[in-house]
Amino acid sequence: MQPKIRTRLTHLLGIQHPILCGGLMHLSDANYVAAVVNAGAMGFISALTFPDPKQLGDEIQKCRDLAGDKPFGVNLYISPRQDANDRLEKLLTVVRDEKVVVVETAGGNPGPIIPFMKEAGIKVIHKVPAVRFALSAERAGVDAVSLVGAECGGHPGYMMVGSMVQAADGPQKLSVPVILGGGIGHGSQLTAALAMGCEGVLMGTRMLVSSELQAHQNYKKRVIEGTGLDSIVVQKKLNNHHRVLDNQTAQAVLALENKGAENYEDYAHLLNGDLSKEAYASGNTDQGLLDYGQSACFANAIEPVRAIVTQFMQEAFDAKERLSELRTEYSE
Ligand SMILES: Cc1cc2nc3c(=O)[nH]c(=O)nc-3n(C[C@H](O)[C@H](O)[C@H](O)COP(=O)(O)O)c2cc1C
């Protein structure tokens, strides 16, 4: 039996391993999330993938059937645009009524919805790209924060702080547990993050090759071929830095940026999420902005989530062992 690493995060969520697998738009559904929690980590159903409240409720129930009594979470993206958050309130009500134990929030300030979640007994982990946002989230009452570095697939924030800096800086300044994300895909990084005071790690890109993920084999093969050097940050002009696979759509966005386009409307046809949704289904990875980060270098085979997590934890223990074998010498 594999030994366990206990941290404040494993206690908070009642999970075996200090690993979060973050919400994945169009991809983190009941099948995938149940596979993650059955492997001893924590997963999050992407609420915006099921924007109709009835659909989200059904997906949560399906996950409960597959995960038995294991807790699982929901990812809620908070838009900076208030009008886009009307839908959020309805989804939040489903999350409460379905008694989901933990929510991963991301995007805008979670402050306004925290009292609602606290009253419902829901734990909140807010995901941010810089310590200063984490401090605001802590003041607003979140239970933990995920700090993601510039290497991450998705939104690294306009400050583009690297994970190594986040890992050492965050735990010194925050009292709530800090989870490190961005470029994580090898277990030795968990050991390093723990050494720097973090309580766990968060993965997205590394998990894109999971067998249980509903995506075309050609898409997963593209991730396997990828090195992570083929990720690119776009939407800088919109101050919405977005790390994605370097494909035709990403290049078209860059070309518009270089021509001086600055408004969302100029890009809207390329940023349309339906393009990405279709790409995951068809395996045509030339189209859509496909969130994808530097940790693709660790994704070398299509495997069940359990195999990925088991190998990751073995790598973490191997790294711990290497550290314990290091000798400290004192000179006179
Ligand atoms: C394909 C994909 C889709 C994602 N979709 C979301 C999302 O809908 N909401 C969210 O909060 N984060 C999303 N993320 C970010 C992840 O949850 C996680 O924070 C990030 O992938 C961690 O960095 P890594 O990719 O270097 O592991 C997505 C990431 C990927 C790779």
Automatic annotation (TrEMBL):
Molecular function, one GO term: nitronate monooxygenase activity
Entry-linked Gene3D superfamilies: Aldolase class I (3.20.20.70)
Superkingdom in the source lineage: Bacteria
Entry keyword annotation includes Nucleus: no
Pfam families tied to this protein: NMO
Keywords of this entry: Dioxygenase, Flavoprotein, FMN, Oxidoreductase
InterPro entries: Aldolase_TIM, NMO
Protein name: 2-nitropropane dioxygenase
Annotated organism of origin: Kiloniella spongiae
